[in-house]
Specification:
Length: 372
């Protein structure tokens, strides 16, 4: 491997083609990553943080596109629950994404963008690429792997497939497989993107991007990240005057729209500045395909058969209806079946699925206590 530094990110290029679950191999893979804190002489204080669907490697540093703080800056840093004065924290942009790691927007061997020629990828492929990154960095066994939402899927996948590579697994607000409802919401988003004329079968690079479709996809997904109580408390049925120049109630002859409508439009529009539509298609499909039980022949406990010496901590939230406490308990029961040491807690928070990203002091205490 070689390292490459740019103004926005640094990346490692894999020396060998990356074997994928599809049976294909992807050559010249780049994995963009950020590190925080110092790796100790024994090289045993590394913590690998996996990001969620729309996240990236900038877990605790300013985002080069948006200028906003890192997505988990409240959790990772000096004196924070994942203390960078004690631990060397690594966060990599997943395979298939668009912040430096190889994905649909990357150049193929013929000098053209991969676009929809990019191979089908799985969550295990994403983790496999990050294991290769660890090998490049000379890190054998991690102190811990940590992730929420899709990041939690990666953490569980890491434990199931590379249990000897980590001492601890912290999975928050996640699941071992998607429900039909999860898949349905993702399909609405994918169809919104593909219905945008600018998508052009995925060949839009160098021209107009399918921002309208991607914006609607983000709006639909964002609803699933929130709770009904949180939406009601924050917005209720309150109206606000139009004035942002965006389509909405005024286009139907009204001068005001609901605050929640404006909020969702803002979420959608701002998302298009930092994410690639084709990446959204590939990553949501990878999440939908994720099923640890199926990978183990149909029995979830068998997925963790080799993880008996790994410590687990699982966290759910009482208002999360995307990945429910019942989903998390299913994983706990599977770990119990193989006598893996596991602790589990359901936390109360009003924010729905997004609770793992927001100010929930109880989560801070859990993370700090488990990471040690």
């Amino acid at each position: 491997m070689t390292n490459r530094d740019t103004a926005s990110f640094r990346a490692a290029t894999l020396d060998q083609p990356l074997a994928l679950d599809s049976g294909r191999a992807l050559a010249g893979v780049e994995i963009a990553y950020e590190t925080y804190g110092t790796l100790n002489a024994a090289r045993d204080n590394a913590v690998l943080v996996f990001h969620a669907l729309t996240g990236d490697q900038f877990v605790a540093s300013t985002h080069p596109v948006t200028g906003k703080p890192g997505w988990w800056e409240r959790m990772v840093g000096p004196g924070r629950p994942i203390d960078t004065e004690r631990y060397h924290v690594i966060c990599a942009n997943v395979l298939g994404s668009c912040m430096g790691s190889t994905g649909p927007a990357s150049m193929a061997a013929d000098g053209q963008r991969h676009a929809m020629r990019f191979p089908v990828i799985t969550v295990r492929d994403m983790v496999r690429a990050q294991v290769a990154l660890l090998d490049h960095l000379g890190i054998g066994v991690l102190h811990a792997v940590v992730g929420g939402s899709m990041g939690g899927m990666q953490a569980l996948c890491f434990a199931a497939n590379w249990p000897q590579r980590t001492a601890r697994v912290l999975a928050v607000a996640t699941t071992a497989r998607h429900s039909a409802q999860n898949i349905a919401f993702h399909e609405v988003g994918r169809q919104a993107i593909m219905a945008d004329p600018a998508w052009n079968g995925g060949d839009y690079y160098g021209g107009a991007s399918p921002d309208k479709g991607l914006s609607v996809a983000r709006m639909a997904a964002h609803i699933t990240y929130l709770s009904e109580a949180g939406l009601t408390e924050k917005f209720g049925r309150r109206l606000q005057a139009r004035g942002d120049g965006q389509p909405g109630a005024k286009s139907f002859g009204f001068d005001a729209d609901f605050q929640v409508e404006s909020y969702l439009r803002h979420q959608g529009i701002s998302f298009t500045d930092r994410f690639d539509a084709n990446s959204y298609l590939y990553i949501t499909r990878a999440m939908d395909y994720f099923d640890l039980a199926e990978e183990a022949g149909g029995r979830l406990a068998d997925a963790f058969a080799a993880a008996g010496n790994t410590r687990f901590c699982l966290v759910s939230f009482d208002t999360d209806w995307l990945y429910t406490t019942a989903d998390m308990r299913e994983v706990v029961h599977a770990l119990n079946a193989v006598a893996a040491p596991v602790s589990f807690v359901e936390l109360s928070a009003p924010y729905g699925h997004d609770s793992f990203l927001l100010d929930v002091p109880a989560l801070d205490r859990v993370v700090r206590g488990f990471i040690g």
